[in-house]
């Protein structure tokens, strides 16, 4: 199946459509989403993580959320992140927390969002856990890095994500030496002014920033389902005698499960990004926009119901 640019743009448009997002909450986890979203509540998500831990996989949980534009909603999202961290600690699962700061009030006030982040990261620190700040579109990039810098003055258990399709990525990698980073190709629609548009160029930049961060001695999470990239990384770390304890591979819940197990059997750490919650529509549409295989995957899920 070839995912033409108009179809990709269509899925990206849907991911940002508030009316569709509201309607999706009424549908439940239909249209194939249940294959890639681990339930609506914390209990369902933790049950999935326990299953994955038994398979030798570690995880990161993300309570999905989009379009938060009130302090009340942001405070509730903050409380839910803290509740999730406490539930993880009491359950004994091997799992971090991932979050999006627009869900915590970033578009309302940076200072307000920073206060919420301090509460979350402080809670995670108490149970020796780690918080990953997901990177959103380019308009939020510098805000994210500014808040990360403030948090890291007091906490060492927080990191973020760098997107290889952004032209600024290489410079950001250098400035974040010593910070635990998840490195991705990027999933938002961006203009040529800020982002590379050609797949070959994005892939090249992706591998370059992976090498740079590994060689700096920094912890590196390589988030990709691209087995060619994974093979190149494995060769690179062997050639440069980089210990397996300095990096991990990350993949999305529900995707490339056989590859996940292959890497675990070879002794590599594989962390699964496990999203959950009722606000699943935007996440699911972005996954559809990313790769043509994902559309076919969803259609098979619908037909199997």
How do the helices and strands line up, and which of them pair or pack?
Layout: H1 5-15, H2 18-27, H3 42-54, E1 58-63, H4 71-91, E2 95-99, H5 110-126, E3 131-133, H6 141-151, E4 158-163, H7 169-175, E5 181-184, H8 199-215, E6 220-223, H9 227-239, E7 247-252, H10 257-265, E8 270-276, H11 281-290, H12 292-303
Parallel strand pairs: 1-2, 1-8, 2-3, 3-4, 4-5, 5-6, 6-7, 7-8
Helix pairs in contact: 1-11, 4-5, 5-6, 7-8, 8-9, 11-12
Structural key phrases:
305 residues, alpha/beta, TIM Barrel, 8 strands, 50% helix, globular, disordered C terminus, nucleotide-binding, oxidoreductase
CATH topology term: TIM Barrel
Mean of pLDDT? 87
Largest sheet: 8 strands, parallel, barrel
Low-pLDDT sequence parts: 297-305
Helix content: 40-55%
The CATH class label is Alpha Beta
The helix/strand series, from N terminus to C terminus, equals HHHEHEHEHEHEHEHEHEHH
Pfam family, one: Pro_dh
Cofactor: FAD
Keywords: FAD, Flavoprotein, Nucleotide-binding, Oxidoreductase, Proline metabolism
Protein name: proline dehydrogenase
Describe this structure in words.
This protein has 305 residues and is an alpha/beta fold. It has a single domain, classed as TIM Barrel (Alpha-Beta Barrel), CATH 3.20.20. Helix content is 50%, strand content 13%. The protein has helices at residues 5-15, 18-27, 42-54, 71-91, 110-126, 141-151, 169-175, 199-215, 227-239, 257-265, 281-290, 292-303, and strands spanning 58-63, 95-99, 131-133, 158-163, 181-184, 220-223, 247-252, 270-276. Strands 1-2-3-4-5-6-7-8 form an eight-stranded parallel β-barrel, surrounded by seven helices. Helix 5 crosses helix 6 (141-151). 38% of the residues are buried. The model is unreliable at 297-305 (pLDDT under 50).
């Amino acid at each position: 199946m070839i995912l033409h640019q108009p179809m990709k743009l269509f899925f990206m448009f849907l991911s940002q459509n508030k009316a569709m997002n509201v309607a999706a909450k009424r549908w439940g986890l239909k249209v194939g989403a249940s294959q890639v979203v681990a339930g609506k509540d914390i209990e369902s998500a933790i049950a999935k993580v326990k299953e994955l831990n038994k398979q030798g996989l570690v995880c990161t949980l993300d309570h999905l959320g989009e379009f938060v534009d009130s302090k009340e909603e942001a405070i509730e999202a903050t409380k839910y992140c803290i509740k999730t961290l406490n539930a993880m600690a009491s359950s004994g699962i091997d799992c971090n927390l991932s979050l999006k700061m627009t869900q915590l009030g970033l578009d309302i006030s940076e200072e307000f969002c920073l206060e919420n982040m301090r509460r979350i990261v402080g809670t995670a620190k108490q149970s020796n856990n780690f918080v990953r700040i997901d990177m959103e579109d380019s308009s939020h990039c510098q805000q994210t890095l500014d808040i990360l810098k403030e948090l890291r003055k007091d906490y060492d258990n927080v990191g973020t994500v760098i997107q290889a399709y952004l032209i600024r990525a290489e410079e950001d990698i250098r400035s974040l030496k010593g910070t635990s980073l998840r490195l991705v190709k990027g999933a938002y629609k961006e203009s040529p002014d800020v982002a590379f548009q050609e797949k070959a160029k994005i892939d090249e930049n992706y591998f370059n920033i992976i090498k740079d961060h590994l060689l700096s001695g920094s912890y590196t999470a390589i988030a990709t389902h691209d087995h060619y990239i994974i093979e190149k990384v494995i060769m690179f770390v062997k050639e440069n005698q980089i210990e397996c304890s300095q990096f991990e591979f990350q993949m999305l819940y529900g995707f490339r499960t056989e590859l996940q197990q292959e890497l675990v059997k070879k002794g590599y750490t594989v962390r699964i990004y496990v999203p959950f919650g009722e606000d699943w529509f935007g996440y699911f549409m972005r996954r559809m926009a990313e790769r043509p295989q994902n559309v076919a995957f969803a259609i098979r899920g619908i037909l199997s119901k």
